[in-house]
């Protein structure tokens, strides 16, 4: 899917967030499968392959988001756009709680929901809370200040 992204652009996407998934903060060093550039607005919906439309995503987050721009909030049933790491601040939508990410907004609730089953080849072997526990336990525990700093340096500062 992202094979046609130039090497220099892939490198920029990886380096600006120090190899962390921009949706769950999981570092590349903690997983076997390579993080990949995600089109925030997918090409299927007119998104361009340029730095301000690409986010680094772990396999789980990228497959879960898929070619979508939004989904239904599990609490309200309202259609909400997905969190956009280029225009939004991570800490406004999520909160670190040990190895878990707690949603603070409808966008956060949807991204924080586990997929119905793990994507094939994602490295995740179970569903539900166990999958989330495994996924987020691999992510180093970082302070809210560090999360804010990552968000600001990745262009998510507003």
> Major beta sheet, specifics?
2 strands, antiparallel
Radius of gyration (Å): 14 Å
Order of helices and strands: HEEHEEHEEHHH
Classification by helices and strands: alpha+beta
Oligomer: single chain
Give unreliable regions as ranges. Answer: 115-119, 124-158
List the domain count as a whole number. 1
- Biggest sheet strand order reads 1-2
Helical coverage, percent range = 25-40%
Indicate the mean pLDDT: 77
Q: How many beta strands in the DSSP annotation?
A: 6
Q: Please report the number of helical segments.
A: 6
| Overall spatial form | globular
Strand percentage: 5-15%
Quote the distance from N terminus to C terminus.
28 Å
Brief summary of the model shown:
By secondary structure, the chain is an alpha+beta fold. Helices cover 30% and strands 14% of the residues.
Describe, in plain words, how this protein is organized in 3D.
This protein has helices at 7-15, 59-65, 90-93, 106-112, 128-137, 144-153; strands at residues 36-39, 54-57, 70-72, 79-81, 94-97, 100-103. It has 158 residues and is an alpha+beta fold. It is globular, with a radius of gyration of 14 Å. The longest helix has 10 residues, at 128-137. The strands form 3 sheets. Strands 1-2 form a two-stranded antiparallel ribbon. Strands 3-4 form a two-stranded antiparallel sheet. The protein has a two-stranded antiparallel sheet with strand order 5-6. It has one domain (7-153).
Outline the secondary-structure elements.
Elements: H1 7-15, E1 36-39, E2 54-57, H2 59-65, E3 70-72, E4 79-81, H3 90-93, E5 94-97, E6 100-103, H4 106-112, H5 128-137, H6 144-153
Antiparallel strand pairs: 1-2, 3-4, 5-6
């Amino acid at each position: 899917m992202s094979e046609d992204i130039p090497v220099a652009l892939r490198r920029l996407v990886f380096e600006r967030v120090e190899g962390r998934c921009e949706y769950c903060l999981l570092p590349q060093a903690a997983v076997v499968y390579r993080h990949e550039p995600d089109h925030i607005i997918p090409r299927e919906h007119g998104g361009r392959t340029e730095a301000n439309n690409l986010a680094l995503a772990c396999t789980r987050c990228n497959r879960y988001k898929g070619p979508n721009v939004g989904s239904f909030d599990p609490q309200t049933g309202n259609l909400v756009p997905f969190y956009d790491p280029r225009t939004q601040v991570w800490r406004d939508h999520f909160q670190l709680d040990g190895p878990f990410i707690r949603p603070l907004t409808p966008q956060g609730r949807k991204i924080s929901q586990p997929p119905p089953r793990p994507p094939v080849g994602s490295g995740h072997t179970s569903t539900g809370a166990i999958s989330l526990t495994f996924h987020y336990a691999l992510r180093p525990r970082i302070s809210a200040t560090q999360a804010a700093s990552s968000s600001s340096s990745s262009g998510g500062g507003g």
